Amino acid sequence: MVVLASVALVSCNEGPTQAPAFEKQVSVVGVLTNQSPQRIYVWYTARPQEPLEFVWNAQVKVAAPFGEVELHARDEVPTEPGGESYMDLGNPLPVHSGLNYRLSVMTSDFHLRGSTTMPGAFSILAPTREDTLRLQARVLTVSLRWNKSAGAHGYVINLIFPRIEYPPGSGIYTRRNLVSYETVDTTFTVSTLAANSGEYIVKVMGYDLNFRRHYFEGLDAVGIEGGYGVFASAWVDSVKFNVKN
Q: Which element (helix H / strand E) includes 63?
């Protein structure tokens, strides 16, 4: 999590200005989606070149009109990327389009609050599960189309490639690679090099204003009060389709 530092402009007639003293704060990253589980990352801010310290003793809750759900920290020795997070595994948070969600993160020293409104549900219209596309000179072209998501301020598109057995016959498969794009429209054409046939996945994520302001405009505190980071939401749809040479 990168926290942007403010820069003070000083006129030539003024003496040098001393930089403000570093103050420890809480930094949170949480993007709610309609895909479980939900994850909230909580760190203490750090000086440049210092590692971030995950906050293990926080009380993390997300509230909505239907009630409140508490998220719990994973084991202190994570067994997978993203293991250092608060999750709703025991009591899943119901996620509905158009609802407002409120975040509360309490530590021994800080209380951070956040708010986000989930964008509207939508569906990918093309391609469909029944479609079979063909590579043309090792280039895959996918024409995408989906419904508009009410309240979305843009869309992220991920095209996910099939796993590859390497070396051939070894039974060992590579991780799925992906390419990403961003648009504000509800149609998009992906054209990318692709050497392999198989099952591809395309995911479209319609994100809220908080997401755009943090990840695309670079603001360091969006949708939250009392700390740094972002509390945002996004609706996601995906479809699998086949590709042949």
A: strand 59-64
Amino acid at 234: A
225-235, pLDDT tens digit by residue? Answer: 999 999 999 99
Amino acid at 177: N
**Cβ–Cβ < 8 Å for 152, 210:** no
Q: Considering only CA atoms, which of 219, 240, 222 is closest in space to residue 230?
A: 222
Q: 10 Å Cβ neighbour count for 179?
A: 14
| pLDDT at residue number 59 | 96
In the DSSP assignment, the letter for residue 210 is H
Cα dihedral value 44, 47, 52, 54, nearest 10 = -20
Q: Name residue 70's beta-bridge partners.
A: 61
Lowest mean pLDDT among 4-13, 89-98, 230-239: 4-13
> What global pTM score does this model have?
0.83
| Residue matched to tokens 């509230």 | 63
